[in-house]
Amino acid sequence: MRELPRVIRGWAEGAPLEQIGQAASFDLLTGRFEVPDNNPTDVTASEWQWMRKEAATVGWPQYQALIETAHAEPKLRKLYPYTSHWALGFAAAPDVLYNTLTFVSIESPRGTGDYTIRQWSNGPPLHHVTTLAEAVAIAV
């Protein structure tokens, strides 16, 4: 609580978000939706940044590997990522997420099992594959 006045003052005085985050020992800035002009390319990059950070904290190695591997693929990294029920989906842009069908959705297994690829997050399964490389290749 002692740090909160410094954070508020920085915000009120127009300090950059990075500087405000340095004033707080708590996780104030997540990296999510911190794009001042809502440029779709930057919003997409910001969401990927958030997903990678969040995936590293959930204690689910297969899910973290899914996020990292999908992010490493340039064709998928250009798409807006989102999760629903721990499945990774992709949309053409942030503002059309709920207005159009997604391109593909990949579910990661808990422990052992297959990766499931669907046309959209709760659609019927299209493929079950054993490796993440196969799942990402199908998504691409």
Topology (elements, then pairings):
Layout: H1 4-12, H2 17-22, H3 40-55, H4 61-72, H5 74-77, E1 80-84, E2 87-91, E3 105-107, E4 115-118, E5 125-129, H6 132-139
Antiparallel strand pairs: 1-2, 2-3, 3-4, 4-5
Helix pairs in contact: 3-4
Give structural notes.
This protein has 140 residues and is an alpha+beta fold. The protein folds into 2 domains: 1-30, no CATH class; 40-139, no CATH class. Helix content is 39%, strand content 16%. The chain has 6 helices and 5 strands, in the order H-H-H-H-H-E-E-E-E-E-H. Strands 1-2-3-4-5 form a 5-stranded antiparallel β-sheet. A hairpin with a 7-residue loop joins strand 3 and strand 4 (115-118). Helix 3 (40-55) runs antiparallel to helix 4. The model has no long low-confidence stretch (mean pLDDT 84).
Question: How would you summarize this macromolecular structure in one to three sentences?
Answer:
With 140 residues, the protein is an alpha+beta fold. 39% of the residues lie in helices and 16% in strands.
Counting structural domains, the number is: 2
Largest sheet: 5 strands, antiparallel
Unreliable parts: none
Strand order, sheet with most strands: 1-2-3-4-5
What is the typical, i.e. mean, pLDDT? Answer: 84
First-to-last CA distance? 46 Å
Strands, total number = 5
Alpha-beta content class: alpha+beta
| Helical residue percent band | 25-40%
Instruction: Please write the string of helix (H) and strand (E) elements.
Output: HHHHHEEEEEH
| Strand percentage | 15-25%
Work out the radius of gyration: 17 Å
* Tertiary shape: elongated
What's the tally of helices? 6
